[in-house]
Amino acid sequence: MSDIGSRTAVADVRAVIEDWAEAMRRKDAGRVLAQGAEDCLVYSLAPPLKASDSDSEGLERWFATWKGPLGFRLEDVEISAGEDVAFATALTHLSGEKLDGGKAALWYRLTLGLRRAGGTWKIVHQHESVPFYMDGSFKAAIDLDPKSQVDWDAPSPPPMAGVIAYLSVEDANASAEFYGRAFGAKEEHRKYADDGKRLIHCHLTVNGGALMLSDPFPEFDHPWKPPEGYVLHLVVDDADHWWKRAVAAGAEVTMPLEIAFWGDYYGQLRDPFGIRWAIVAPVKKEG
Fold this sequence. Notes:
Layout: H1 3-26, H2 29-34, E1 36-43, E2 51-52, H3 56-63, E3 66-81, E4 85-98, E5 103-117, E6 120-129, E7 165-168, H4 172-183, E8 186-192, E9 199-206, E10 209-214, E11 232-235, H5 239-249, E12 252-259, E13 264-270, E14 276-282
Helix pairs in contact: 4-5
């Protein structure tokens, strides 16, 4: 095959893949299937072990579980094409909101096999995969992204106990930095949205417990709302130290730190993002 023919084949295959990806974003099952052969073999992330992409009913049902369009992006696309056979590899980012309000965002590996018949390229094989942690848990490593640097046999994070506060704040970056200064927060992990500015997720440890942050995402029906109706409690040994540090960082005093009627040393602060915090320490009894 000549170099010109090879470049033409690669361009044609790329056009098929781009149209297929756009159909996925629009949740257009007919358009998705139009780019695949009737006997297309699919190894997807979901059961069963193998399936056929000609199952339009199953694809429609899956699309129907998502609210609004899908985020579906291919990166590092590599295509090799001969006269009648081609394959492509890519890293794929899938994101969106489920009907129950749950948010999904993950990277996975994609390989596509294509065959040309009658001058038209069709997808004949689709293979999706994610690595899993090699610690015996068999947990899928869906928290990776193209920039992740993870030891292949590193253990997966242990489950976190209790109820964890997950805050949507106007500026998650600024909030995380402030909580570091005011409450000694330690950052464990952060993940940015496609715009490289907003945080999809930020995991902090404050006083030994987990606190999660994210920016608002109105395009996914998750707008910012003023915080109300809750207080984040910090039960500490040295309330005066925690209080002075938070006030010095810029927290506003809304209830002075003093011995409350129920017997604890207690006070409340409001951070610059409108969230209320309580500093509390048990009063030590004499003798």
